[in-house]
Write a structure and sequence with these properties.
By secondary structure, the chain is of the alpha/beta class. The chain is 40% helix and 22% strand. The chain has 15 helices and 15 strands.
Length: 370
């Protein structure tokens, strides 16, 4: 089923690695922003009246930095104007430093049933170097409040001074209070961010060191009963993110708010990244789209293959045939022969072997003909 993404672009401080559209100095605008998002929801309602949604994801930025009532207003509008199933997965991203018992209680009242908590590292010095505004103690306090809830924890690898042992320690802390899902991402130093200078100065771990961290984290998670279902995502069976799985299956979703992207009816479209422009568009009765393109032909095939090969399940050959009217084995015969040693291939499925999933980019590129 399709999903709904709502972007909240405000935060209390911007991390040194952050390349997302977020504003650390404009929290005072949150109510006016939420009002615009609700207007956008209303404007999209007719276009999406035939859709039934089973996930809602509120991301950022730092959604938990807002007054929780503002989150309730958004979720109320989503449920009023869109057809959201009763047992939809509804996720909100949280910074440990901005979590408290009353806020979590209100979120649950609004229908939130899944939480995504940003830990990144269990080493305070590394959090400080990243510009994070929380400590490990803040995370522990937050995790205790979420004990018994369905929550995920973000872990980052490739940080300055980080070791494989640090990653194992972080995973131990992240899972100590009952987290059922871990997202373990490698730091990508984006040009224009403060941490990019560290990269240029050679202060960040190299590729081999990051691979060692990933392998250590993977093994630790396996010991704890987590299964990898996508290159960066691990879950206790049954707790996979339905919202993210929809992305990797090339499902449909609507994005709301500044910089949000959508995929509806084989069209991808994106809202402006400029907050002032977003306000202006919505307040003058227009949608804030700045680009829209039809995904078809080879581009559509490439998307399908790229996203499917990122997952542990891989490519469903019959599904590919139904979608594109082509035989996958015939169409990709050369790539399958060249990279056969890296793949598990059956009559109905093609997937990258577990030991090679972390380096899937070089394999996927071959299938895309790049």
């Amino acid at each position: 089923m399709p999903g709904i993404y709502v972007h909240i672009p405000f935060c209390r401080s911007k991390c040194r690695y952050c390349d997302f559209v977020s504003y650390p100095d404009k929290l005072s605008l949150s109510l006016s922003y939420v009002t615009c998002v609700i207007d956008e929801i209303v404007k999209r309602a007719d276009e999406l009246k035939g859709y039934v949604f089973d996930t809602v994801y509120i991301g950022g930025g730092t959604p938990s930095a807002l007054d929780p009532v503002h989150i309730g207003l958004v979720l109320g509008a989503v449920k009023k104007h869109f057809n959201v199933i009763p047992d939809a997965e509804i996720t909100i991203e949280m910074n440990p430093a901005s979590a408290d018992a009353e806020k979590i209680k209100l979120y649950k009242t609004f229908g939130v049933n899944r939480f995504s908590v940003g830990l990144q590292s269990a080493i305070d010095a590394q959090l400080e170097d990243m510009g994070r505004n929380e400590t490990v103690a803040d995370f522990v306090a937050c995790a205790r409040l979420l004990s018994g809830e369905n929550y995920s924890v973000d872990v980052m690898i490739g940080l300055k001074g980080q070791t494989a042992e640090n990653v194992e320690e972080t995973i131990s802390v992240a899972t100590s209070f009952g987290a059922k899902h871990i997202s373990m991402y490698a730091l990508t130093p984006e040009e224009g961010t403060p941490i990019y200078t560290d990269y240029l100065n050679g202060e960040l771990p190299d590729g081999d060191e990051v691979r060692e961290m990933y392998d250590a984290g993977y093994e630790k998670l396996r010991e704890l009963g987590f299964e990898r279902y996508e290159v960066s995502n691990f879950a206790i069976p049954g707790y996979e993110s339905r919202h993210n799985m929809n992305y990797w299956r090339r499902g449909e979703y609507i994005g709301l708010g500044v910089a949000a992207s959508s995929h509806i009816k084989d069209e991808r479209f994106t809202n402006t990244q400029d907050l002032d422009e977003y306000y202006k568009c919505i307040m003058t009765g227009h949608l804030a789209e700045i680009s829209r393109e039809k995904i078809e032909g080879q581009d559509k095939k490439d998307e399908y293959v790229m996203l499917a090969l990122r997952t542990a399940h891989g490519i469903d050959v019959d599904e590919y045939g139904s979608e594109f009217g082509e035989d996958f084995f015939t169409e990709y015969e050369k790539s399958l022969q060249r990279y056969g040693n890296f793949l598990d291939v059956t009559s109905g499925n093609v997937r990258i072997k577990d030991e090679y999933l972390y380096v899937q980019n070089s394999i996927i590129i071959e299938f895309l003909g790049l």
